[in-house]
Amino acid sequence: MFWPPTEERFYFETGDRKLLIKIQRSLVHQEGLPKLPVPPLKQTCEGYLAALEPIVSAEELDHTRQLVGEFLNGGVGERLQKGLERRARKTENWLSEWWMQSAYLDCRMPVAVYTSPGVVLPRMHFQDRQGQMRFAAKLIAGVLDFKKKIDSETLPVEYLSGKPLCMDQYYQILSSCRIPGPKRDTVVNYAIGKISSTHITVVHNFQFFVLDVYNSDGTPLTVDQLHMQLEKIWNSSLQTNKEPIGILTSQHRNTWGKAYNNLIKDKTNKESVRAIQKSIFTVCLDAPMPRVSDEKYQSRVAAQMLHGGGARWNSGNRWFDKTLQFIVGEDGTCGLVYEHAPAEGPPIVFLIDYVVKYMQRIEMVRSPMVPLAMPQKLRFNITPEVKRDIEKAKQNMNIMVHDLDVKVLMFSHFGKNVPKKHQLSPDAFVQMALQLAYYRMYDTCCSTYESASLRMFKYGRTDVIRVTTVDSLNFVQAMQDPAKQRVLLLQKATQTHKNNTYNAIHGQAVDRHLLGLKMLSIEDLTSMPEIFMDTSFAVAQHYNLSTSQVGSKTDCVMCFGPMVPDGYGVCYNPMEEHINVAITAFNSCEETNAARFAQAVEGALLDMRALLEDAAATAQQ
């Protein structure tokens, strides 16, 4: 029987761009998506020099200008550019494999804090295990309902500026897991194959369980059935003295790679690890954390999502290599942490919005009493060597917990409504506030990273919007001087930011192109071009501000660690009338302080609003 394709439409906004979503088969468009272009070499070289202008000295810039000229005209750049264009013709996406490796799989820092983002959901109103079980059961049912859309390829296709976006990342986030290697990790996806996974893993008091979430006829368990199964898990994991095997996954990747090979020498351990890796996702039933004041609550939960709070709290109640881990605390805290290699924030947040809406809708209906098998507890044989590895991981995790400085700013004065009223892009407005805050604290500006989605292209991931520009520098300097045309400079800076954003999402930014040229020269085994050995290149890549806008309908906040030891990680969700901002820094760096930066951001946002309103009032007189 042939069904005509039905199509519903609805809109929601991400930052300043309306995203049109059409509900139709999501992979229909995949084949027709354009390939990621290779930008013209001259354009990238000019863009690179423009990006350096506000962040390096005049002498350094002159030196780099010379090197760029040689690269552009001396034949080396041209040869690499041709090689890159050849690669683009031969592959589906010239960048994606290189990016996955260089940004994630080759990276040897721990995934916890350093690369895995956390998401804090609004505080729930339960304070006991009953509420925790009910919430977890509904959440699992919601994710399984979302999975049904992925499996049947009826996921809404997202559109940006009238163009369909690549939906591939949605197919990478369930039933996948990162696997450590001694020098490079891999990601396995068990959703792609003959037999797809039918279980999730649940971890409570550091003990892992396999929970089958489908009946024998293929229907998902009801919320009521899931609730009963979670009760069984809870009751058979009451001991709190178990070895936190999961904490091993928080180690430096080389250390974990060695410990992993040692752990899976044992057959039982290997089977248990495989069961976790193959599971659709993981649910972490966390023990309650020490109470803090309402003002500190969001920041404490953000830290809990990133690292679990330390070895004596919930850091062992995780498998950090698992792509999706939902965290439900007995004290009403909830959220998730995700391993970054397979996907960016927007698909994760889209999943959250879907699940939250589903949970508001669904009621617990008493199910017919079909006896369900006891969820299987995963056994681990802890040899003295494994025990030593666990002890080392606990020590390192506690150092990491003490080092991470987290501050969540719930900015309640205004949201997207103010910049929109003054015809400014909300994203550019927030970014200029970050620039102003940084300048006021350090009397200089720095290399700033904002991620831009390349999902207009097949298998597109991200590129960089370089936020610090000559125009942003002119604006932040003018803010110290009332005699300057500050409103005009703000308008100019935000417009430049908007143009840079447009170029980045259309595959015309600078950074990934430079990465491609650099990777190619490594693969060709030719000598590394001078521009990549230059001080300016190191400065450009040292992002003291690593930022991302992750907009959602749910009032949540995403957070991630800084990119560099003396930097900040800043993730923000601009809602209509307020802005959620999560700021991280490292305590081991004396110059950075998340709370001070949050204060500076709040001051910058308020001053920028005052600037616009004063100008508007003057114009009306």
Question: How do the strands and helices of this protein lay out in sequence?
Answer:
Blueprint: E1 8-14, E2 17-23, H1 41-52, H2 58-73, H3 76-90, H4 96-105, E3 118-120, H5 129-151, E4 157-160, E5 163-164, E6 176-179, E7 186-189, E8 199-204, E9 207-212, H6 223-235, H7 253-263, H8 267-278, E10 282-286, H9 294-307, E11 324-329, E12 334-338, H10 345-361, E13 376-377, H11 384-403, E14 404-411, H12 417-421, H13 426-442, E15 448-453, E16 462-466, H14 470-478, H15 486-505, H16 511-523, H17 535-541, E17 545-549, E18 557-559, E19 568-574, E20 579-586, H18 594-620
Parallel strand pairs: 8-10, 10-11, 15-17, 17-19
Antiparallel strand pairs: 1-2, 2-4, 3-12, 3-18, 4-5, 6-7, 8-9, 9-13, 11-12, 14-20, 15-16, 19-20
Keywords: Acetylation, Acyltransferase, Endoplasmic reticulum, Fatty acid metabolism, Lipid metabolism, Membrane, Mitochondrion, Mitochondrion inner membrane, Peroxisome, Transferase, Transport
Subcellular location: Endoplasmic reticulum; Mitochondrion inner membrane; Peroxisome
Subunit structure: Monomer.
- Low-pLDDT runs of 5+ residues are 1-24
- H/I helix tally: 18
CATH superfamily of the largest domain: Choline/Carnitine o-acyltransferase, domain 2
Report the biggest beta sheet as strand number plus sense, adding barrel if it closes.
Answer: 8 strands, mixed
β-sheet strand percentage = 15-25%
- Quaternary structure of the protein: single chain
General shape:
globular
What is the domain total for the residues?
Answer: 2
* Measured distance between first and last alpha carbons: 68 Å
What is the helix content? 40-55%
CATH topology of the largest domain: Chloramphenicol Acetyltransferase
Question: What's the CATH class label of the largest domain?
Answer: Alpha Beta
- The spatial strand order of the largest sheet comes to 13-9-8-10-11-12-3-18
Mean pLDDT score, rounded?
Answer: 91
Helix-strand makeup class: alpha+beta
